[in-house]
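Lab manual, section 2.4: Encoding a predicted structure.

Procedure: take the sequence of the chain (247 residues), apply the prediction step described in section 2.3, and record the output as structure tokens. A sample record is shown.
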Amino acid sequence: MLHTRFTALLVDDESAANQRLTQLLAEHPMLQVIGSMQSVSMAKAFLQREGVQVPDLIFLDVEMPGGTGMQLLPCIPKTTQVIFVTAHEEYAAQAFEFGVLDYLVKPVAPGRLEKTVERFLKQHGSVVEKATPSDQETLIPAPVVRNKEMHVVPLESIRWIEGMQNYSRVMMRGVGTAAVFRRSLAEWGSLLSEEGFYRIGRSHIIRLSALQKTKWVSRDETELFFEGVPEPLVIGRSAAARLKELL
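Recorded output:
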């Protein structure tokens, strides 16, 4: 199953460091920051709180007042992966012995963080590698990577594409969850410009021939229903106006 979004918790005693990392992660819409803790005790209390959302990923500093990031590791759920973010390089070997996903040294470079995020997403089957189709794959815009296996996506199965900065969510016929591609909406537009797809508004491309019905919900919300897809696509006012022109 492909996730549409993953959650991240930040643990660093420097509020400025948490703010910078939050800004950097804003460029990765697949990750949602759900909390920012400034001590090991705060993070431990958060993780042990009943009913709290367990984060998929923790960005963890090493040296903090009142405890180290290493001391928090036993309290972190097994389903949660850890990325150390620290100014101290000497703890790297120890960190990897604990099985952390990565070890980033401050100040974190955006490109370095991007590679780490891509690795995390690949491990969870929620990113698509860019690829150039062969002559025998002219109808395949890109392969989907799921559980380290490659699955091709026939062009005819695509129903709609939703842009999320450098990523995009692609809904296909017969699939309950949208797949996530590391490809912008503009890139999709150049691939699909002559294939019966139309861009409506800033965030969506749809296969017009697969649209079955529209449902007006409010002034700012319209639902689109497509053949082979149980859940509707929700669009805004400007996209609805553009669609009305096409219809």
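Check your result against the sample. Residues 127-151 have pLDDT under 50 and may be disordered.
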